[in-house]
Each structure stands twice: as structure tokens, then as C-alpha cells.
Amino acid sequence: MISMLLLLQAPSVFDAGKVSFSVHAHGWEHNYKIMTYSLMPNESFEMTFHHVPDKSKISVRHPDGTLESLSGHRWVWPGSGTAGVHPFAVLLDHQQMVINLIVMVPLKIDSKGTMQGYRIGKYPDIPLKGLGIYKPPRGLIRVDPEMLVLPLSPHFTLGQFMCKQAGDYPKFLLVRTGLLIKLEYLLELVNHKGFATDTFYVMSGFRTPYYNDAIGNVRYSRHQWGGAADIFIDSNPKDGVMDDLNRDGVIDVRDAAVLYRLFDDESFKDGYKPMIGGLGQYKKTSSHGPFVHVDVRGFRARWGH
């Protein structure tokens, strides 16, 4: 199953990984060749396809065949009680879109702060400013080693977002669809601006509350809800640190500022509005190089620049 999805990888010349039609589901519309959504057990999933030519027909395939076709290019999957990846192949005029539906495991943290032996910690009891996005997640994605190479979108894999804390498998993770769409959007943007790279280096993706507290981060960090990523361009050379984006011969906060300004300028465009969120700029320290933080919190926030 996962090996089939690995066929969708970016070539050496940047390709945004898009098809000519789009899908609207879970509050997001996109036209990427592959995208991932997380669901609770037995939660149904409805998808509506747009920009379908009048004489063309959408075909949606799933291994167990449990799909219902509705009017207006709408399809519904009734859900599954089996945790794990459930991929769909959407076909239209020799084009293919893969939709990964990942059924999560309900969040059940024991008295030791663990879930199936993996240390999670404790989510805040009171949501920040009463906002629903800061309530504890209903579930988490159970991750076994073979899932690390799973493509979540055209240019990002599941392993890029894993929490950095030590521990045996199974581990747990959360990655929001909106974050994947935003990262793909920004990746296409930097390539268009002349910074050639086939992905961002994700220095920090998901964090458990335990790990977030251990590194001294803020209590309501969006990383804990799978909606944030600390990223930089690491392409020339690939050495685990930010590239010299401003070409001054020094790797420092001014390179992070290149990305910050590029992303901030883009945030005022109409097409960016669904992805509105936080943007932060960070200088290098003894433990890491410069980077920028991006998230999809749903409202504008800026810091560090």
C-alpha cells in the first residue's frame, strides 16, 4: 500500500504536483496529486470534485469498494473502525489524485502520561482564550516504522513531522491537512522565486506535550496539535542547515529573514487567506541554525522579525 504511494515523488525539476481538477473536503479545497486527512474511527468522509469537464467522469477507487457516489461529483466514504492508512485513487482523463485517509486512535492517556507505552504528556485543560483549536485532539495517528516513508502530499512524507523525542514504536503523531496545503503552497512559492528545492527541511513538526514542555517551549505551541512546522531550505548543499539564501557567504538570521519576508508578503493575497496563521523568525543557536516557523492557527500572528 505505502510502496504504491511512493511512486508519486517530485522529479529533479520542480513540479508542484497538481492535477487539473480539485477536491473540496474537510473545509479545504486543493488540486494536489496526493493529500492526507485524519479521521476518527467510523467517521465518514465526503468529498466534492470541481473543475470536471462536462463530458468527463470522475472515478474513485478504494480496495474494499465501500464508496457511495452522490449527485454533483460528490462521493462519501462511510468510515472504518480500523486504524491506519486507507488510500483512495481518484481518476479523471488519465490523471490520478491519491487521497490518504488515516484513521486515528482515540486519545487515551493513562496515569503515567503515556499512550500504548509512548509518552504523550498532558494537554492543557483550558483552551487558550476559549478557542476550540486549543482543545485536546480527539485522536492521534499511530505510527509504525514502515509508515515513516508514507507520502502525505506531493513533497512531504510522514517521517518529516515526527516528534524528536526518544521512544520505541508504536509512536504517535498529528499532522493537519491545512499545514500540508500551506507547506506545498510555500514550497511552490520559493521555487518560483528562484530558490530551487524539492522540499523544506522540517526541523520540528509534531511535538507531544511532554516533549514540548521538556524543551521549554510555550504551553500552547501549535506544534502539539499538528498545525505547525519549523522549516528552512536545505538544498545547496544538503547539510542539515539553512542555505545561504541572500548569498552573503554567511548562514545567519538574515537568511531566515529572506523566507520571512517572502511568506509575509504572500500572506496579504486573497488565495492565502484560508492558510492564515503564525509566522516567526529565529536566529541560529549552538543547537540549530536559522529557521522560520509557520502554522495554520486561523488568525494572524507575527514575531521575531
Q: What does it look like?
A:
By secondary structure, this protein is an alpha+beta fold. It has a single domain (2-303), classed as Muramoyl-pentapeptide Carboxypeptidase, domain 2, CATH 3.30.1380.10. Helices cover 13% and strands 31% of the residues. It has four helices and 21 strands. The strands form six sheets. The chain has a five-stranded antiparallel beta sheet with strand order 2-1-4-7-6. The radius of gyration is 19 Å and the shape is globular. 36% of the residues are buried.
Overall, the morphology is globular
Unreliable sequence segments: 3-11
* Strand residues, percent: 25-35%
What would you report as the Rg, rounded to the nearest angstrom? 19 Å
**Which CATH architecture would you pick?**
2-Layer Sandwich
Write down the oligomeric state.
Answer: single chain
The largest beta-sheet arranges its strands as: 2-1-4-7-6
Predict the CATH topology. Answer: Muramoyl-pentapeptide Carboxypeptidase, domain 2
| Count of domain modules | 1
Order of helices and strands: HEEEEEEEEEEEEEEEEHEHEHEEE
- CATH class label: Alpha Beta
Biggest β-sheet: count, sense, barrel?
A: 5 strands, antiparallel
